[in-house]
């Protein structure tokens, strides 16, 4: 059985990222080794004119492609820091989409709700955070993200524009894709209100203050 962990990067000018890029890559590489998984880093050149929104769609496209090759695929945003010795692939049941559904930001939840309720579908009061997710070929074949994103009704996105988390949440709920919420423990969003957690397995450093945990 072959598993893989991957991440993706675009050459932004934000020095908070640049100063730690190699360390963050090495951190993911070490965790992949601990899990007995392969590791792949995708470095997207800025001259390809890929912006941050497009980058977030690309990680789902890549996951779908990798799932055709590997048994289990784990995606980690580069600012997600594993702080655990537990093997994600052994701990979780990959028969469902593995994701963390959060209660914020509210604007994403509300747009997804409007999209679903306009089709007569009750909406859950949360949204998938795509900073961490686990997937297989079978689940990808249920989601069909690259195909079904074309179904999105753009009128509800207004000034926010395309958003991968809204799209994925919409598709998962509309087509009743089975999922397991991996919870805060596997995607702890570090921000000014919650600066650290020693009890969590993955720290998602939205503050980009990597020196506090590395």
Written description of the protein model:
The longest helix has 15 residues, at 52-66. The chain has helices at 15-18, 21-34, 52-66, 88-91, 106-117, 137-143, 145-148, 164-174; strands at 3-10, 38-44, 72-76, 80-82, 97-102, 127-135, 179-181, 188-190, 202-205. Helix 5 (106-117) packs across helix 8. It is α/β, with parallel strands linked by helices and 214 residues long. The protein starts with a strand and ends in a 9-residue tail after the last strand. The model has no long low-confidence stretch (mean pLDDT 92). It is globular and about 45 Å long.
Strand proportion, as a percent range, falls in 15-25%
Poorly predicted residue ranges: none
| Strand order in the largest sheet | 2-1-3-6-5-7
Calculate the mean pLDDT score and round it: 92
Spell out the key features of this protein.
single chain, 214 residues, alpha/beta, six-stranded mixed β-sheet, three-stranded mixed β-sheet, 9 strands, 33% helix
Strand-helix topology:
Blueprint: E1 3-10, H1 15-18, H2 21-34, E2 38-44, H3 52-66, E3 72-76, E4 80-82, H4 88-91, E5 97-102, H5 106-117, E6 127-135, H6 137-143, H7 145-148, H8 164-174, E7 179-181, E8 188-190, E9 202-205
Parallel strand pairs: 1-2, 1-3, 5-7, 8-9
Antiparallel strand pairs: 3-6, 4-9, 5-6
Helix pairs in contact: 5-8
